[in-house]
Amino acid sequence: MRILLVRLRQIGDVVFTTPAIAALRRRFPNAHLTYIVEPAAAAVVSHNPHLDEIVVAPRATGFKGLLHDLGLGRRLRQSRYDVAIDFHGGPRASLLTWLSGAPTRIGYQVIGRSWMYTHRVERPRRLRPRHSVTNQWDLLAPLDISLPDRTACPVEMEVDPAAAASVATRLAAAGVSPADRLVVVHVSAGNPFRRWPHDHFVTLVAALALDTPDTRVIVTAGPSERDAGRKVIASARAALGESAARVVSCGEFSLAELRALVDRAALFIGGDSGPLHIAATSAVPIVALFGPTLALRSAPWRDERWTTIAVDAGELPCRPCDQRRCAPGDFRCLTSIAPAAVFDAARQALRAMEKLP
User: Fold this and answer.
1) How far apart are CA 284 and CA 39, in angstroms?
2) pLDDT at 54
3) Does the global pTM surpass 0.70?
């Protein structure tokens, strides 16, 4: 059997498909599994042990993009897939799923594109208090695969040995020793609705750096927000004075390097974005900040033995939202999360991990 999996766009969403990949491998141990992904998230699945083939599909616009996708569709059809599963549901993903020519094509019930699938799964438009991994699992029902279990099917991302070597070299060059307690704080997010305020991050980073003499804090940020990371580092160092060296600057990390970095860390702190879910593929304790999104829907999906603490603003009439317009206008779901609350959660996560055998 040959199975095609399609999941384009966001990093975190690609991470959320990895439990389904493992479940498909267990259900069809001899199948050939191919995964189509865009370049930005390719590192998430590039070393996945359950996949036989990765197809990286760069995104282009206009007529050129259409020609590229039609050419890719012809190659997919020549591969003669038996089943194609569209985990995305966007126009491009739907088209590639249909162009594959697989006799069984599974996707969401979407207006104007449902005819491209042979099996359609309802996807309500309203936000549901149900985890994204569970939502995606509905697509596996036609293949007789039972509901997921976090322990048996956690999110996965294999560590790239070359990335791990690079991270070790960079940490040593920055003066971080193996005995240091490393805390990774990711300060950026995919959109302004998920960005915790700069000053809050500065306060948190400074408090973490002063927590114990052996603590070193690394601030990371996405490529589009590297300036935000630099500003947090500079402001935290200025506040720390003689202890400024405890906030470490190592430059920008690729996704593969970030995955290797969290394996070295004692704690990861970040908002609901791709790096948070990459961190979830490790055993590192996590403190996750949720603004407009709900932990019930987007919390790290992993073995419950590994410590994960969600921090949010509590119940608000505008939360969750569609992240297109802030109804109150002040992003209160984020601004009202106090640095002290996140620091307390960080200490709690570290203590819980220390108690594990």
Assistant:
1) 26
2) 97
3) yes
pLDDT at 356: 52
Tokens representing residue 178 in the block: 């193996």
pLDDT in tens, 258-288: 999 999 999 999 999 899 999 999 999 999 9
Hey, what's the torsion of the CAs at 46, 49, 53, 54, to 10 degrees? -20
Closest CA to 248 of 357, 173, 336: 173
CA contacts within 13 A on the Cβ side of 204: 30
pLDDT score at 123: 76
- What is the per-residue pLDDT for 128? 61
Return d(Cα 271, Cα 282) in angstroms, integer. 17
pLDDT digits 0-9 by tens, 118-153 = 999 987 665 566 888 988 888 999 999 987 788 888
The letter for the amino acid at 58 is P
| Distance separating alpha carbons of residues 145 and 198, to the nearest angstrom | 44
3 state DSSP class of 89: coil
Which long-range contacts link 333-337 to residues 24+ away (Cβ below 8 Å)?
333/291, 333/292, 334/193, 334/194, 334/195, 334/196, 334/197, 334/289, 334/291, 334/292, 335/197, 335/200, 337/196, 337/200, 337/289, 337/291, 337/311, 337/312, 337/313
State the DSSP H helix or E strand holding residue 184, giving kind and residue range, or none if neither.
strand 181-186
| Domains delineated in the chain | 2-143 (3.40.50.2000), 161-354 (3.40.50.2000)
Q: What share of the chain is helix, strand, coil (3-state, %, to 5)?
A: 45, 15, 40
Angle of helix 255-264 relative to helix 161-173, nearest 10 degrees, comes to 70
Task: Name residues whose C-beta falls within 8 Å of residue 33's C-beta, 6 or more positions apart in sequence.
Answer: 3, 5, 21, 24, 25, 50, 51, 52, 53
CA–CA gap between residue 201 and residue 173 (Å, rounded): 25
User: For a pLDDT cut of 70, what percent of the chain falls above it?
Assistant: 96
Q: Pairing relation of β-strands 119-121 and 181-186?
A: unpaired
**What's residue 64's pLDDT?**
82
CA distance 322 to 77: 36
Residues lower than pLDDT 50 in the chain: 357
Token pair 């819980």 in the structure block, residue: 352
